[in-house]
Amino acid sequence: MAHPDIVWDKNHFGQTRRSDLWWLSPLLVFLGLGTFIVYATWAAFQNKYYVSGPYISPFYSPEIFGDSPRAWFGPEPAWIPRFLPYSPALLILWIPGLFRFTCYYYRGAYYKAFWADPPACAVSEPRTHYRGERTFPLIFQNLHRYFLRLSYPVWLVLVYDVWRACWFKDGFGIGLGTLILAVNVVLLACYIFGCHAFRHLIGGALDQISRHPARRRIYNCVTCLNGNHKKWAWASLGSVAFSDIYVRLCAMGIWHDWRIF
Amino acid sequence: MPGNALFRIWRGDAQGGKFQDFSTPISPGMVVLDAVHKIQAEQAPDLAVRWNCKAGKCGSCSAEINGMPKLMCMTRLSDLNLDIPVVLEPMRTFPSIRDLVTDVSWNFRVKKTIPKFTPRKPDAPDGAWRIAQADADRVQEFRKCIECFLCQDVCHVLREHHKHDEFIGPRFFVYAAALEMHPLDTADRIADLRHKFSIGYCNITTCCRQVCPESITITENAIIPLKERVVDRYFDPLKRFFRIL
To answer: Taking the complete model, does pTM exceed 0.80, yes or no?
Structure first.
């Protein structure tokens, strides 16, 4: 594949003849993802107000070691050095965090919005050197499916949390928080099980999928979800943050949960 | 809409050039290629433009219209803002020949380097194969490609970083996917995809999918599945234990 003889000169950063609002989409992604990262980091280090009645924030679930009655193995263990900031969220948030970080949709979005690589289609970049995902460090993006596999049990715990959210002190019931947590796990399911890696593993790797009718049916469903992966990614990101805010406000006493029945 | 529109067209060759303005009458239903032909007929008979079918099926009239790679014959003037000049340039990823014409022969040289279709032995004594429709459906999408090379033009790995020596570009990942996912094919292209064709350079901008005039889902249906097959081979030793998930 010999290089073509002549190529156009390198342009300067941001140069384009596009006359549309090409900068709007990366700007919105920058603001949306940036806001979530700042909020999630703040919330993860709070280590309080994450449980309210039968509800637990999805940022803190599963609570492996913690001070709430929902902790699986009791309070923070002694072997964790005291000088390190501790929060139950720190033990778990890295799984969904890295799952989203290595997600094919988010990769394309944040390469544009945060790294200008490129800023938008047919818009010039700030740097000439390029390694892509071929070498260190971005070759680690290929580990996406490992974080997918780790996300299955985390999602199952969140499903169980919805069941727990139906049991109040006076018995079974549904509150507004129950519905918020339920919507959250549905949106997360659409995101996780519409993932490109899941689509590949469930059937995309097969050239003759007609020989596997069950997997073919699932593959077709996953393909359907995958077509809207971007929407599920944003909807689930918003629902996770909103669920945390709702539980936090209830736990702080600023908001009182509305018990439907 | 009837009236005049201003077209700012790149005039030049491999040594250089400049934009030249042309004002020409327009009428309802016109596409950019119609206007270029009108300018060519009435004002600039030496204006070079490559075209053939005027129906979006030959992939010849690829150019950059207001900075975005598009087919001139499929871009309606009514979809453009004619209050400002319509800027027409040749594709920037390939060498300029003259005016709006570029040398896309690099693509044909690349295509020769991809291992060809290698079918398994015929299924029937008469030398025929049997393919389930469900298996054919998946690769059928890739057959829609008209080789306009707009995806190659917009891909920043080629356009900005000029990795033509190492990277084959989205068009040929679609071609490789059509072969690699074919139910009859037995050739193995995974090692080439990783090392020789450098699929790792793709960072999922989806620009190729966005400019495809045939609406081929290039990123999601061709490139990402090929990346996942590379992951199967090189980055997932656990797959033998997690056969499906």
So the answer is: yes
